[in-house]
Amino acid sequence: MAVTFTPLHPVIAAECSGVDIGRNLTADEAASIDAGMDRYAVLVFRRDVPLTGEQQIAFTKNFGELEPPYTQIQSTDGKRLANPALADISNLGPGDRLLERDDRKRLFGLGNQLWHSDSSYKIIPARYSLLCAHVIPPEGGNTEFADMRAAYDMLDAKTKAVIEDLVCEHSRIFSKGTLGFAFTEEEVRAFAPVRQRLVRTHRRTGRKSLYLSSHAGRIVGWPVPEANLLLRELTEHATQREFVYSHKWRAGDLVMWDNRTAMHRARRYEDEKYPRDLRRTTLTDGVPTVEQAGDGQGMAVGF
Ligand code: OGA
Ligand code: MN
Predict the structure, then answer these.
(1) Which residues neighbour ligand 2 (ion) by CB within 5 Å?
(2) How far is it, in rounded angstroms, from Cα 209 to Cα 147?
(3) What radius of gyration, in Å, describes the C-alpha atoms of the chain?
(4) Which residues contact 295 (CB under 8 A, 6 or more apart)?
(5) How would you list the strands of the sheet with 262-266, edge to edge?
(6) Residue-wise pLDDT tens for the chain (303 aa)?
(7) What is the DSSP letter of 78?
(8) What values do phi and psi take at 121, rounded to 5?
(9) In which domain, by residue range, is 10 found?
(10) In sequence order, what are the beta bridge partners of 279?
(11) Rounded to a whole number, what is the largest CA-CA distance in the chain?
(12) Which of 92, 117, 245, 278 gets mutated to test ligand 1 (max ligand atoms within 8 A of its CB)?
């Protein structure tokens, strides 16, 4: 059966079918899915049963290299998932118990409800993220995706000229800090800001996109309040409903998105009452964005 894409929204996201993502893919299948990512930025794979951790990791590796594991804030009584390649996107602690209201892992995880691009706070940020749903609450907890290519295209020429070569500083201190999350001194040191271009050019499609994230809190060379105002204005523009697909999860779904061309956020749900268990694998993009040519020319292609 051929790999097929059924659009879920006018500009972003499609459901991908005709391929069993739980087994080894052929090179043609992987290339078709990659081409689907270039076109839709977000792909939804519906399955009755969630992939196992091993299957999810194997599927992810068809599209690049896994990100190295990094500092996550753990629940007071430790880690729930043993495999460091799987990020625990849940409101659960060890033994699958619901986290207490003031558990640091819960408070840190609430930051996912701010619009962001995964790992934009790392020098080499993420390419694709893949999120697999194991347990879903009866209500709420959708994930929304905003198309940063459409958002860029719809900017006026003057704004495009202003932002073309801007470089921002990103850190989890800015995103979670906005919510008032209390960092330790060690965390503040570990989360030093990194630089990212504000306008990116996709290596394969040549399309430009806004590289925004709630982790962005400075623009190099700009006074801080002015930088934050521009970032807020651009974020407001980029997250208008016409650019946003909202995914209502079913257990078993796997959603894969391109962090270079889409921002995302979780929506609120009753997390003290219902478990929500998703697991994420993430690919590194291989090169710092500040080293990527603004015009997309002369790039080493990291595939
Ligand atoms: C993530 C993330 C959103 C959600 O996994 O990177 O931001 O809805 N998840 O859980
Ligand atoms: Mn995320």
Answers:
(1) 118
(2) 8
(3) 19
(4) 201
(5) 244-247, 143-147, 262-266
(6) 799 999 999 999 999 999 999 999 999 999 999 999 999 999 999 999 999 999 999 999 999 999 998 767 877 778 899 899 999 999 999 999 999 999 999 999 999 999 999 999 999 999 999 999 999 999 999 999 999 999 999 999 999 999 999 999 999 999 999 999 999 999 999 999 999 999 999 999 999 999 999 999 999 999 999 999 999 999 999 999 999 999 999 999 999 999 999 999 999 999 999 999 999 999 999 999 998 765 443 333 332
(7) B
(8) -90, 5
(9) 4-284
(10) 88, 132
(11) 55
(12) 278
Ligand 1 atom showing the smallest separation from residue 264 Cα: 7
Domain annotation covers residue 296: no
The CATH number of whichever domain residue 255 belongs to comes to: 3.60.130.10
d(CA 155, CA 93): 43
Question: 77 CB contacts (<8 Å, ≥6 apart)?
Answer: 93, 94
Quote the CA–CA distance of 235 and 303 in Å, as a whole number: 30
Atom of ligand 1 nearest to the CA of 131: 5
User: Which is the closest atom of ligand 1 to the Cα of 266?
Assistant: 8
Tens digits of residue pLDDT in 111-158: 999 999 999 999 999 999 999 999 999 999 999 999 999 999 999 999
User: Is 294 domain-assigned?
Assistant: no
**Which residues, judged by CB distance below 6 Å to any ligand atom, belong to the binding site of ligand 1?**
89, 112, 118, 129, 131, 143, 264, 266, 278, 280
DSSP letter (8 states) at residue 243? G
Total domain count for the chain? 1
Q: How far apart are CA 24 and CA 26, in angstroms?
A: 7
